[in-house]
Amino acid sequence: MMNTQVLLKRRPQGAPVAEDFEAVDNAMPQINEGQALIKNQYISMDAGFRNWMDEGAGDDVLPAMALGEPVMGLTVGEVQESRHPTLKAGDLVMGRLAWERYSIASDDFLVVLETHEQNVPTHYHLGILGDTGMSAYFGLTDIGQPAANETVLISAAGGAVGYVAGQIAKIMGAARVVGLTSSDAKGERLKAELGYDDFINYRQPNLEAAFQSACPEGIDVYFDNVGGPILETVLNHINVAARIPFCGAVADYSNPRPVGPPNLFQIVTNSVRLQGFMTHLQVSRYPEARAQLMTWLNQGQLSSVTQEYAGVSQCGTAFADLFAGKNFGKTIVAVDH
């Protein structure tokens, strides 16, 4: 039996393309004492991992990815064999492993899913009940805190975090929820499927007019997943005492020289709260968040949307499609399909 792996073939120059990655078949890994063999079922595609593909890009979260080695990513899978004291064969686990069919792991970055957490599709634990769902939940409940008379704007609204954030904003009672997206087709899906009130196609020529039309009362909460130049336009329409949960900067991940907006002083003059956050610092609160998200799912207030690619060899294409704007909802790869 062989282990299919997707390697970092070359370092992306700007936005990743499928040719930056290479699928290969290697010998099955052998486990040592203190390790377990995981058969991955689904692999999560997360744009933020682009940060660690550059030379010397390592930090306190992850080391820089090495050329010729499997690409790191989040997976959910089943323990096949174990020489670990707490992991046992049959355990369903989620964690930071790699783009491959089989992974060797300790429990350093693994979470064992409890029985009551397995009564949903497995891939939910990489999406709406995983880190992307946690990002939407904590970003809005802790920082955004939309009120009943307020307008919420979500960037990358059709992405893995954005599509959940928009729904949560509605559940929390926001008067108006608007999505920033890359096409009219995506925007219409936001309205038809996810309850958004309006959308702004950021590729249209008159962006200021589009903001005025979609957010006539200004912006009270801006859930930012992209950073980049669009923040300048947002700040021109920001209200006093607005909140900006800063979740990601996909516009800058592939830019070697990111440029910040020139009107940052609007944050001062309007007493805006802009706060970045990382969900792994809230891991002790994951049960609370999952319980609430599950309640909303069971009540029909929250929907899960996934875009699935078939086979581990498709990881490179799936990842590149995130940066080409070809995704809607949570992008996952089904390893054995």
CATH homologous superfamily classification of the largest domain: Medium-chain alcohol dehydrogenases, catalytic domain
Q: Which architecture of the largest domain does the CATH hierarchy give at level 2?
A: Alpha-Beta Complex
- The CATH topology annotation of the largest domain reads as Quinone Oxidoreductase, Chain A, domain 1
Principal-axes shape call: globular
Separate helix tally: 9
Count of domain modules = 2
Beta-strand proportion: 25-35%
CATH class of the largest domain: Alpha Beta
Give the distance, in angstroms, between the N- and C-terminal Cα atoms: 17 Å
Overall mean confidence score, pLDDT: 93
Which H/E pattern describes the elements? EEEEEEEHEHEHEHEHEHHEHEHE
Query: In which range does the helix fraction lie?
Result: 10-25%
Structural class: alpha/beta
Question: Taking Cα atoms only, what radius of gyration do you get, to the nearest Å?
Answer: 20 Å
Task: Offer a quick outline of the entry.
The chain contains 9 helices and 15 strands. By secondary structure, it is α/β, with parallel strands linked by helices.
Task: Give keywords.
337 residues; alpha/beta; Quinone Oxidoreductase, Chain A, domain 1; Rossmann fold; 2 domains; 6-stranded parallel sheet; 15 strands; globular
Describe the structure.
- By secondary structure, the protein is of the alpha/beta class.
- The chain folds into two domains: 2-127 and 304-334, Quinone Oxidoreductase, Chain A, domain 1; 131-279, NAD(P)-binding Rossmann-like Domain (Rossmann fold, 3-Layer(aba) Sandwich).
- 24% of the residues lie in helices and 27% in strands.
- The protein is built from nine helices and 15 strands.
- Strands 3, 4, 5, 6, 7, 14 and 15 form a seven-stranded mixed β-sheet that branches.
- Helix 1 (131-144) crosses helix 2 and helix 1 packs across helix 8.
- The longest helix has 14 residues, at 131-144.
- The radius of gyration is 20 Å and the shape is globular.
